[in-house]
Amino acid sequence: MASRIKEPVITLSAGPVAAYPRVLRAMSRPVQYDFDPWFLQFYEDVTRKCATALRTVAPTLVLHIEPAPGIEAAAASLISPDDVVLNLASGVYGKGFGYWSARYHKEMVEIEVPFNEAIDPGQVAEAFRKRPDIKIVSVVHHDTPSGTLNPVREIGKIVREHDGLLIVDAVSSFAGMDIHPEDCFADIFITGPGKCLGGAPGLTLMAVSDRAWKHIEANPKAPFASVLSLKDWKNAWSKEEDFAFTPSVAEMNGLDGAIDQYLAEGPENVWRRHALTARACRAGIKAMGLELWAKTESIASPTCTAVRVPAGVNDDAILKAARAEFGVVFSSGRNETKGKLIRIGHMGPVAEPIYATVALTALGGALRKLGRKVDVAAGIEAAMQVIEAQ
Ligand SMILES: *Cc1c(COP(=O)(O)O)cnc(C)c1O
């Protein structure tokens, strides 16, 4: 049935993003019976391909839930009632992890910085000095509602030196830039197909270290026979093992297409176009007289550009005008960042420099529609210079 609302022309959201044609083709494959040998082999093959993309040895753990509940499952499974958790909050997702953690931990220490800044690894080292009993640390690599990055490699090194267990939410950075579980000493590394992989949003991909599995197995409260259980799915990758419940067959088809797309293009090539698109976009934003949300450009994400909403303008009015005048979809902020910024996604198929110029036109045009003076041509020219300098 057709919606009565006209479809967008171009979706430049912070995710879910428009899926690659290859993903859509894969999702049109038959929905197989999950006990059939064909599907059991296919499932194992896909999890091994995911491990190739994640650059890990063990086949990837797939949860048949979206990454947000997937992160909750990581908290529920890993955090035992004796654990002291260090939560690093530089944005909405980082802050949010603390609320999940509260259901499971003994105590939480939190480092919170303004949501346009990044966590300083020095603060993490300091926290361990003060509280050597910290066992689990959680960090978001790219806190999408702020469009900012945290230095997860440096943080991970400190956590490992103190024998802590690190959870890294890389949902909106993996496959859009150079980040993998082992680079950042992640014990649980969480991502999904719906952001930079250009797939559909229904699954969680997790790389879980042996250290983390040991901790989960020793956790008397780790859920089983539950949607929040990691244990239930630990061995499900193997064609010799049963599934805990029926996996999302159509989503697995889509994931297969997304991973094939990523590996066939070549990860380095994919990251390069994400970075270039974001750089062109940022140059254009500044040239149009608008302000980036990130306090310094060095922490601005290559997969999403957050732009401060100009004083006296309403964020929803901007989104509405961009959608109505140009058919272009942007994202607003979330929770604490709602109303303060507009987000331009550069994820998957739209991480192409031409879409930087599309975003500048639609954002500048929307602001003009709302009566603001914006030099769109200057923005496009600045973006062009970044693209041409390649
Ligand atoms: C999108 C996102 C999530 C959650 O993904 P859902 O698809 O909404 O479940 C979690 N963390 C970050 C950083 C994200 O960008």
Quick rundown:
The protein contains 12 helices and 14 strands. The protein has 390 residues and is of the alpha/beta class.
List the helices and strands and how they pair.
Elements: E1 10-11, H1 21-27, H2 37-54, E2 61-63, H3 67-78, E3 84-89, H4 92-101, E4 107-112, H5 121-130, E5 134-140, E6 142-143, E7 148-149, H6 152-161, E8 165-169, E9 188-191, E10 204-208, H7 210-218, H8 249-265, H9 267-287, E11 304-308, H10 315-326, E12 328-329, E13 331-332, E14 341-345, H11 353-369, H12 376-388
Largest pleated sheet? 7 strands, mixed
Segments where pLDDT lies below 50 for 5+ residues?
none
Mean pLDDT metric: 97
With strands numbered from the N-terminus, the spatial order across the biggest sheet is 2-10-9-8-5-3-4
Number of strands: 14
The CATH architecture term of the largest domain is 3-Layer(aba) Sandwich
Report the principal-axis shape.
Answer: globular
Name the CATH superfamily assignment of the largest domain. Type I PLP-dependent aspartate aminotransferase-like (Major domain)
Query: How many distinct folded domains?
Result: 2
- Helicity level, as a percent range? 40-55%
Oligomeric form? single chain
Termini separation comes to 45 Å
Radius of gyration equals 21 Å
Question: Beta-strand percentage?
Answer: 5-15%
Compounds present?
pyridoxal-5'-phosphate
H/E series, N to C?
EHHEHEHEHEEEHEEEHHHEHEEEHH
CATH class of the largest domain: Alpha Beta
Class by SSE composition = alpha/beta
Helix count equals 12
